[in-house]
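This section describes the prediction task in plain terms. A model, or a person checking by hand, is given the sequence of a single protein chain and must write out its three-dimensional structure as a string of tokens. No templates, partner chains or ligands are provided. The sample shown here is typical of the held-out split.
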Amino acid sequence: MPHPKPEPKSQRVIFQPATYRSLQQGINKIVEAIRPTLGPLPRVVAIDRILDNRMPELLDNGAVIAQRIIQLPGRAEDVGAMLVRDLLVRIRDQVGDGTATTALLFQLIYNEGMRYLTSGGNAMRLRAHLEQGMRLILDQLSESTVHLEGKEKLAQIAETICYDRPMAKLMGEIFDIIGEYGRLEIREGRGRGLEREYVEGIYWERGLVSREMITDHARLRTEFENASILISDLKIEKPQQLFPVLELAIRADVRYLFMVLGEISDAAIGFLLANKNPERFQAVAVPTPGWGVYAQAAALEDLAVLTGGSPFVRAAGDTLERIRLEDLGQARRVWADLRNFGIIGGKGDARALRRHIAHLRACFDRTDNPVEREKLRERIGKLMGGSATLWVGGATELEIEKRKELAERTAAAMRVAMMEGVVPGGGVALLSCRPALQRLLDQSSDSDARAAYRILIQAMEAPMRTIIANAGHDASEVMAHVKLAGPGHVFDVISERIVDAAQAGIYDATAVQKAAVYGAVTGAAQALTIDVVVHRLEQPLVTGREPSKIKRL
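The expected answer:
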């Protein structure tokens, strides 16, 4: 007999002033878990692993810590925590760093704003003035931005992100060579240290369709000089489908033919391997790069521009029956192994290549989708020819895992620093925005505006205070000495001296600081306008069981 349906129950609704209190509790809990991670001498956060009995994760990355906090026990405070959690993950996806700064600014703005609103302030007007002050801060950050070049300067930027000098030195060297769009793979190392490897030319992650096509058995790869290249995603089921391109190549005295194909049958592979005259003609095949229709279409377009060939596309009904010699791309050298293939010295039109890269860069600048931006950046990096691999080693699996994650975060922040410039670091850039905010405060007579500017002035000091406190110093005492030293000075917690940030090479990526300010101010201002919180009743995770007996991870 079926179970009777339970009677629907009403939702739980929370109104002011309880709304502010519930949101504040969640915001403060998640931010206090992240606060210790800011600065060159961070504390760490230990988080139990759920799915195994290994030792806890030791984290100092705000976004990762936030991601590990799936749900707080109290439903009321969980809403506030999830507001911050979502913001920090988005900041990490956009610029790779700055999550701890974002969390601190969000917390202070929300707490001070709530204090003002509960004493009679207007939430909507306060929000408008907070956003007006935010625009001033962003303008101030733009004015103080500088662009740095050279591996020494780039290493200084990297060190302010990762606080790992050997890693920073290698990052500076790598990005000086590959550029901001260049391709960098970060892999688990084979030893205890860090190693880097540079790859000449451009390569894709698809290898030879057969081990028998390898010509250099010592290096397990095949290399062709002055090769012709067939660019396609065609499905080759019978050897006869290859006859037109093979006959064309032989008639034109093509010595090496490198074929990019969507699929190729075993019979067609066997036909290619049955070549009786390899001294005169050789042909090998690799699968079309990319997973999915759009990724493969992008790879075909890039290959065609790079080598000057014409792509043959299955969806357009193309076949090889009417192929012409000018449809084949050309390259000074091509290589392939069982995992990858690469092109060195593509002979496409240089002006067409520059136009194509400029178009991809424009698309990169227009989109805000982090997945699309990453795909476009990879394409630009490939076409510009910069590729490197960083091998991250360590004494234990935990150390390797932590250092690899740090390297990935540093690389992401390095890219945005090279693209959009840097500002003095250690909290100096935000602290330098206070005089402009003070001028706005002095000129305003509106109570909501004055409250907003006072809150932002206080917030601009929070990151530097926290960095100093996390390093074990009295923040109030040190901040007094920093202010006496004058604009542009910071307390270097490593050397324990007050220094000029720019002269000491202490920098932050402008894009990271802007993203932190924008995300924190808009997020906190919007949270201050939340008047009602509605909690829906939770449903049982398994049919026929009591909700109280279901454990949620």
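For orientation: The first strand starts at residue 12 and ends at 14.
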